[in-house]
Amino acid sequence: MLFYLAFVFLLGGGARADIGSLAVLRVGSIAVLGYAIAILDPDQLRANKSLVALAAAWIALTAIHLVPLPPALWHQLPGRELAVAIDAATGLEDKWRPISLVPHRTMNSLFSLTVPAAALMLALSLSRSQLRLTALALALLAFASAFVSLLQIIGGPGNAFYLYRITNADSAVGLFANRNHNAVFLAIGIALLGGLAGLITVERRHALRLPVIALFGALSLVPFVIITQSRAGLALGILALGAAWWFHSSARPADGARKSSRRTVLGLFAAASGTLALAALTGVLTANNAFGRLISGGNADDELRMRIWPRVIELAAEHFPVGSGIGTFVEVFEAGETSSTLGPSYINHAHNDFLEIALTGGLPAALLAVVGVSWLSLRGLRAFSHSSGADRTLRHLGMVTVGLVALACLYDYPLRTPSLATVSILALVWIAGRAPESSPDASAMRPLKQTARTADPAAKLAA
């Protein structure tokens, strides 16, 4: 799983269909999916049947949008008037067509699901200790993205450290193509680091230090959220800091707390001072930084979103209840675009995943979303009442992660990026809390057992 995470983050930081690395990622994911299914214990599949059923339903819905329909039926579907008129003008009235108005876009969406599907099957094959290790791995990947972000800012706009051709070349995008997506992931990293103390067991003499170290690590990511120049990302970072403090407060042992409270406060004060200093430095080094964007108020991007959303709602109503086809937003919006949003650049997404799902997936997709939210709510309640210790912390981290991604979906499209889709899948598996005590795949456990003999800190994950 750890190698697959590195593989996904190396190649899957963008959502555009023309990114070459995505072809390699998807082929690799198909192989990983086959391996994961082969080693998956059927009992684990049954234990997580609700989560697997939701994933299968979304894949099935996307595939159904590619099934050709007879002309008499297809011509009756809502939102097809322009296509029907073109068929009549070109003599193609008898042509069978799928629900999707742009089949190659839907085919791309179907293949894009290989990445989260592989992540899901692989995560379900892990033991509880291995799942906790994935949280630590994501925290380390957040630091990797922060380091790449720093190199991008130092090197200037469009330097060699930008991994994607079409990107925010004047911002810190890290391992991603979009600054908002980098900011979301860094915010998730802040929350994960805050909860680190609840996932790892240490000797008693280090028990008071670990929460402080974890919180310091979380604070150290704040300046990197700032240099993304993402205002919404900065807001998510503040929320993630609050979550990190909550995890820190929960992880502090009561025994001996008074004795070391002064040391803890001094440590936190030093960490906060250092973070503020770094934040001020990044503000000086970046002329158009996130603080400046916050102070200046609305910008063209926000105004464009406000003009896009009403038209997306109208288009969703026009194509209700079947939708225009998963992944077809670009062409459908272009066909129905009004003069208020015309410009030199095309609109690649609705910048609100909930609205885009309603437009492209119609009523079935909306119902799946409602079922997913209901499942998440029930599992979230269990996370606060039916778990304890490290398992409880991991479930809480899953809830925070999904919450941050859901908020990001209100203004962007993070789940269309393979990296963040994989993070979200892992978070859902954490929330489900159905992992076995040990992995059914003995070969997968050997490296962990060997690590334990060599006293690697990763092996000290709480049971």
Question: How would you describe what is shown here?
Answer:
This protein is mainly α and 463 residues long. The protein folds into two domains: 2-62 and 108-297 and 355-460, no CATH class; 66-99, no CATH class. 67% of the residues lie in helices and 1% in strands. It is built from 21 helices and two strands. A two-stranded antiparallel ribbon has the order 1-2. The radius of gyration is 23 Å and the shape is globular.
List the helices and strands and how they pair.
Layout: H1 2-11, H2 20-39, H3 42-47, H4 49-64, E1 68-69, H5 71-74, H6 81-90, E2 97-98, H7 103-112, H8 114-124, H9 128-155, H10 179-194, H11 209-220, H12 222-226, H13 231-251, H14 257-285, H15 290-296, H16 300-318, H17 329-336, H18 353-385, H19 389-408, H20 418-432, H21 442-453
Antiparallel strand pairs: 1-2
